[in-house]
Amino acid sequence: MDDLAEYLPPARKPPEEGEEEKAGERIRIALIGKPNVGKSSLLNKILGYERTIANPTPGTTRDAIDTPFTFSGRNYLLVDTAGIRKKSRISLQLEKYSVVQALKTLDRCEIALLLIDAEEGITDQDTKIAGLAFEKGRAVIVVVNKWDKIAKDNSTVGRYVEDIHDRLKFMDFAPIIFVSALSGQRVMRIFSQVEEVYRQYTARIGTGELNRKMTEIVTRNPPPQYAKKGHPFNYVTQVAVKPPTFAFFVAKPAEIHFSYERFLINSLRESFGFTEVPIRIVFRRKHRDTGS
To answer: What is the pTM of this model?
Structure first.
């Protein structure tokens, strides 16, 4: 990834508390994935007309187009990923360019639809793009496209889900939908999933409820170094949404091991219904002298 540094957009400032509500009314969805996986075909099927020019040659979608539309009374803004315009870039830097375009698109969306080619299965490039979405804290729905071209039996779906979870261990909470952009099979089901993911992605938990539950959990399962010392945290509060972000105030943040951080994330996920979205945790020092 080091050779992509020159292409990377500036790091975005983490959202301040309350900043999320200032966002536009439309849910911003991005279509991400490697070239020729069906992003433009899916966009056209969703909209019901040819908004971008699709071509079987990888990288031939002409432009990234932000498309506002309404579905079942909900307003959306759908961002398509631009393809490659120069033949030299197609032959020499197709993979790098698709990753760069995913980075740019992820900067402007809230929910990313990660398209995977069912005929190829999940690839290293799919995993790389998924990792970018995860690092940016985006909610992701894995959309397995070209499902109509796959011979199936009773175990086919299970095998695909297992393979995707195996390759995307860092994102095994992301929901998976099997569609055909060409025929429209299950395409509109994407939106019911988007609604649920967006609900979780923007959910807020009251500080009182949060502290009662997490105190119970941490008291029952404290970090090993605190097993005989009692509760290590002063309190916890949710500081942001998109993604849900929680600050744990503790005397010595550096003592909290990453494995215990994973335990806290899983506990938040199970206790408050964040089952399909990323969660972030920050540990902040609690100063005894100032009470802050």
So the answer is: 0.81
